Amino acid sequence: MIGQLEDLLGQLDELLTRASSELETITTSAALEAWDTHYLGRNRGELKNISSVMPKLSKDERPVVGQKINAVKTELEQRLTAKRGAMQQRELLQAMERERIDVTLPGRTLPAGRMHPLSQVIKEVTDIFVNMGFQVVQGPEVETDYYNFQALNIPVDHPARDMQDTLWVSPGEILLRTQTSPVQIRVMEQMRPPVRVVAPGKVYRNEAIDATHEAMFHQIEGLLIDEYCTMADLKGCLERFARQMFGPGRRVRFRGSYFPFTEPSAEVDIDCPFCNSKGCRVCKFTGWVELLGSGMVDPRVLRQVGYDPAKYRGFAFGMGVERIALVKYDINEIRLFTANDLRFLRQF
Ligand code: FA5
Questions:
Q1: Residue 186's closest CA among 304, 293, 266?
Q2: Above 60 in pLDDT, residue 173?
Q3: 3-class DSSP assignment, residue 230
Q4: Confidence check: pLDDT of 45 > 60
């Protein structure tokens, strides 16, 4: 039986050598698992097969072979664990390499947008009035005849309707507002005096378009109602606004005018910056550019919203945003604002 014992021990040595060198060459975890099953598997592993001869061995031989089997098994298991660790470590390093972020690379620059010049003007104007205690409000662009005309003392067939060529949604009833003045009525219906609001927004007119006239443009409405309020307050407020907006060097003038919802009424002009008031296309050779309409709120309008005209007075104004932008930025063509030419827009 000595020969069989030596044979067995030799087989185990050979197994250890073969399994170890095969393990060295393994590079994938699938191959590693296959190796494990093949050599150390509980069912048909090679080591298990060799152990199956144990019952046939003599009493003296058994512990010798048993110890050898255990030694080979322990050795192979240790090598397997070490190999697994090494492979996991390598896979981790590979993953880190794949996912590496180069923080020194320059980022992708996104094109930066900017505010449209008209939005900038609206912000500047409303900021000035907010600093004087006014509140910013808004109203709808699609209006009823009542708010756009009737409540503002412009009844049906009133000649003042011709001052603003109307774009109707439903003739005689619903229209695109021709002015921001309807917001005055909406505000007074909602608030009790004192009222101090400015209302920026778009207005629409079926207008002949030229260097200073558009069919869609922006206005900023102002309304102040209080127990004590005079034309001098209106003048002071608008002069202060013009100084802050255009600088102390510019001249403004108040010119008597007519609006059905204010009495007395005045238009405010600023000296033409394009020709130094000598006369040009922009100022239509008058030397002045019209900025806004204004006046003391007509008592009829106050009565219409339930304010007592004996107790409350107020002033209102409505300015053209495009006109202000033309003067402020020295632009001589109103159509540039809606032409969407980036070379123009990038200058602001
Ligand atoms: C009005 O629209 C009155 N609602 C203003 C007002 C409000 C008066 C409150 C009294 C009290 P007007 O039609 O004049 O008024 O227009 C006011 C301003 O809008 C003008 O001074 C001008 O700056 C501007 N504007 C008028 N028409 C155009 C247009 N077609 N294109 C660009 N701006 C215009």
A1: 304
A2: yes
A3: coil
A4: yes
